[in-house]
Design goal:
Chain lengths: 223, 592
């Protein structure tokens, strides 16, 4: 009964709002280069005596993760429609000792699945204030879901594998997107109006761009 | 064991004296003292290896633990939250980090990301820990509030690869170095920083500096050399090493005098033990030599002498293990004993011979009387027999019986005469040349009947023509006696044989053999003695003695050869002088 009333209500609202029929997409590309991946600082084991050992270890510690290649964008504005939760939660798998994909975005109330597709144990945890969780260690084939109820950024790690890291962005706006590895993005069906585009890149300051959406699609080049 | 007793003792004494004087020399010379001091110096110098291994190992362990902490995704994730409790929860509470005085993480802008709680917090704040970190992990030694801290600093690289701050972990140093190094090396340890003493182990000689800034004799010596240092009223050896990791100087201190003292005491104890041991050894040696090598042989020789004194000479004195002198003594005693034994044997034999002669003389006297008394009755018997025969000369049977009486009386007379002559010790021989074959043949005929009755075969054989000088009557007594004995010991079916032949050279041997039990071994040497009988019930004990006497009166020899169970063989050996040698004709098998 409640679901039926809500559906009627939403249909009425969408019929009343004149801009609803003229929604356009906001797309573009983030031209700012990813932050340089700092070489992991090495500990000088015994000064002046065993520098060679330190060099050898430095070579082993290269990080294969690539969250810096992505960009995450979202729009903020005065009158934002409510978020839409995907019926099937997106997946962030553990594969080849990496999180795949290493950047995800979900609306508030959305969930993420964390299947282990490696033949080794993994652990998924976050100490973030947005969502603190610890799924413990689990083997190949096992999947755990986490629901994110609060907006913010959730860095995700594996306690076993130092180099594994990922980010989950939780938005309270329906207008968000994760770019491809060329940092091209598209936010579809944005109602006309004035917005601010926020661009997130790992280890870089946020970029904000004012965007006015009319009836035509908007294309942006963010630098 | 060879060599003389005296030489053994001299060698032993020389060894003891050499050991004692050598030991005394060892502990009394300055050379030894200097050598020990040098050795001590070398040992002090050897701590460098221990120290390096310790400092290196200690540092490695700390660095590894810090690296593990800095590689912990949880620790780094906790740092990103900025929540001290979460961070503190990720710092291990074991290992090197357990006894850390403080742990701090400072952001690049100087802000504090984390500080461990407790008194260290104030320390960190006031002294600006952690210090600037230029390049990787650093280890510095800093003084704060009079305490010395080893501070390891390292950059903190977050999970996303960015440098989020600097970690500093501090430990109180004196505990670290002084206790461990003292325990590891056995030397006293003085820690100094920039020429000032900061800590020392409990038993370092000399007074500790009154203030941290005061001069310390151990902090200013040249590193890398064992150096004599005067500490208080004592001269000690010191060896300074600088730790490049912490910037600290570590001086190892030891008193050569004190180190040598126990060694000297040990040597003295050793000498004492050597002296006591030598004494005990000497006593033991004396005991062994005295009781075993000397006492034993001497006691045995004394016992031997006692035996000789009591007249027992039937043993042999031997001391093969005795030293030279005692060996000679034993040999001399043995010569004496054997000489005595031989002399006594000769005396006894002479005595026995004398005894035998005496007895023979007594028997002779007695026999003379008896025979004298026998002669008349026998003459009466013989006369009476003649008388009986004279009354009826035609009676042949009576004549025959009288002849038997005659013959037997004649034998009795002859026997008594022989006994008398044996007793007198001499016999006159009526010697003539006798053909053995004929002579034996007569005797054989005389014994044939008796043997047949006893079931004994009598077998006589020998060559004809073998002639010997002998008194036929006397020698017949011998053969009669031997044959009678042989027949008596033989059982039915046995054979008694008489064999004569040429022996070696011109000797002639006449042998009487039986198949009886033989002569017992204990009797065989005395079988010819008078009054010795071998199992004969009616023997007088004189038969073989008389036989031997008769044979020997001829200049021949009477021998016996016997094996128990194998019969007895009596041999009359006529020497060449009794053999009448001319053309011999041999005829085998004169027998019944």
């Amino acid at each position: 009964m409640c679901r039926f009333t809500a559906t009627i209500l939403s249909l009425l609202i969408s019929g009343i709002l004149p801009s609803a029929a003229t929604a356009a997409s906001v797309s573009g590309v983030v031209l700012r280069a990813p932050a340089p991946q700092p070489a992991r600082a090495q500990i000088n084991r015994y000064r002046g005596r065993d520098a060679a050992a330190g060099d050898r270890e430095a070579a082993d510690a290269g990080c294969q993760c690539n969250p810096g290649e992505y960009a995450v964008v979202h729009l903020t504005g005065d009158a934002l429609p409510p978020v839409r939760v995907q019926p099937v939660p997106p997946t962030m798998a553990q594969k080849d000792r990496m999180f795949e994909p290493s950047v995800l975005a979900v609306p508030v109330g959305g969930a993420v699945s964390f299947p282990n597709r490696d033949p080794v144990f993994h652990n998924v945890f976050s100490y973030s204030k947005t969502r603190s969780f610890d799924l413990g260690r689990y083997p190949q084939g096992e999947t755990h879901d986490v629901v994110f109820d609060e907006a913010g950024i959730v860095p995700v790690f594996c306690e076993i594998h130092y180099s594994m890291r990922a980010y989950i962005h939780v938005f309270d706006t329906p207008y968000f997107a994760v770019s491809d590895l060329s940092r091209r993005f598209e936010i579809a069906d944005v109602d006309p109006g004035r917005y601010t585009l926020h661009v997130w890149q790992e280890n870089l300051p946020e970029i904000t761009v004012p965007v006015t959406v009319g009836e035509d699609p908007v294309r942006l080049e963010v630098r | 064991m060879r060599g003389s007793l005296l030489r053994d003792y001299m060698v032993f004494l020389a060894i003891m004296v050499a050991a004692g004087s050598g030991g005394a020399f060892l502990i009394t010379t300055q050379v030894t003292r200097d050598g020990l001091t040098d050795l001590f110096g070398h040992r002090l110098g050897d701590v460098e290896l221990v120290f390096e291994q310790y400092a290196r190992g200690n540092h490695l362990v700390r660095v590894q633990e810090i690296e593990t902490l800095l590689s912990s995704p949880r620790f780094l994730a906790a740092l990103e939250t900025g929540d001290s409790q979460t961070v503190a929860g990720e710092i291990p509470t074991h290992g090197v980090l357990e006894d850390a005085a403080f742990v701090c993480v400072t952001a690049p802008d100087g802000g504090t990301l984390f500080r461990s709680s407790g008194p260290a917090e104030d320390l960190c704040r006031r002294h600006g820990f952690p210090l600037e970190v230029a390049n990787g992990t650093e280890c510095v030694t800093v003084r704060a509030d009079g305490e010395l801290y080893e501070v390891v600093t390292a950059p903190v690289v977050a999970n996303n690869g960015s440098v989020v701050g600097t970690l500093a972990i501090g430990r109180a140093l004196p505990d670290l170095y002084v206790e461990d190094l003292h325990r590891l090396t056995g030397f006293e340890v003085v820690l100094s920083l920039d020429g000032h003493e900061v800590a020392r182990s409990r038993s370092v000689p000399g007074p500790a500096p009154a203030t941290p800034e005061a001069e310390s004799p151990f902090a200013t010596i040249d590193p890398g050399h064992v150096t004599p240092v005067r500490a208080g009223d004592e001269e000690v050896l010191a060896y300074r090493l600088d730790d490049p990791t912490s910037g600290l100087s570590v001086t190892f201190v030891g008193s050569a005098e004190r180190a040598i003292a126990p060694i000297m005491a040990d040597v003295r104890r050793l000498l004492l033990a050597l002296a006591v041991g030598g004494f005990v050894l000497a006593m033991a040696t004396v005991w062994i030599f005295g009781t075993r090598r000397v006492g034993g042989p001497v006691q045995r020789l004394a016992r031997h002498a006692d035996r000789i004194a009591t007249g027992d000479l039937d043993f042999v004195i031997e001391e093969p293990g005795a030293p030279d002198e005692l060996g000679k003594l034993a040999a001399t005693l043995e010569r004496m004993r054997s000489d005595l034994a031989r002399s006594r044997r000769e005396v006894e034999e002479a005595h026995r011979a004398q005894l035998g002669a005496d007895r023979m003389a007594a028997i002779g006297q007695m026999a003379t009387g008896i025979i004298h008394d026998f002669k008349n009755p026998m003459a009466v018997v013989r006369g009476t027999a003649d008388l009986i025969h004279g009354r009826d000369p035609e009676n042949e049977k009576l004549a025959k019986q009288c002849t038997v009486i005659h013959r037997q009386i004649d034998r009795m007379v002859a026997l008594t005469r022989d006994l008398l002559e044996y007793a007198k010790g001499r016999t006159d021989l009526q010697v003539e040349t006798v053909e053995l074959a004929d002579w034996v043949g007569e005797i054989e005929a005389a014994h044939a009947e008796a043997c047949r009755r006893a079931g004994v075969r009598l077998h006589c054989r020998g060559p004809r023509g073998l002639r010997v000088l002998l008194d036929p009557d006397r020698m017949r007594r011998v053969l009669d006696n031997l044959l009678t004995n042989a027949r008596d010991v033989s059982g039915p079916g046995d054979t008694v044989s008489v064999v004569w032949s040429r022996g070696d050279g011109s000797e002639v041997v006449l042998e009487v053999a039986d198949e009886g039990p033989g002569v017992p071994a204990d009797l065989i040497s005395r079988i010819f003695d008078p009054f010795v009988t071998a199992g004969k019930e009616h023997g007088s004990g004189l038969g073989l003695a008389i036989a031997k006497k008769i044979v020997e009166d001829h200049g021949a020899r009477l021998e016996v050869a016997s094996e128990v169970g194998g019969g007895a063989r009596f041999l009359i050996r006529f020497p060449a002088k009794l053999h009448v040698a001319d053309g011999l004709t041999t005829r085998e098998g004169i027998s019944s």
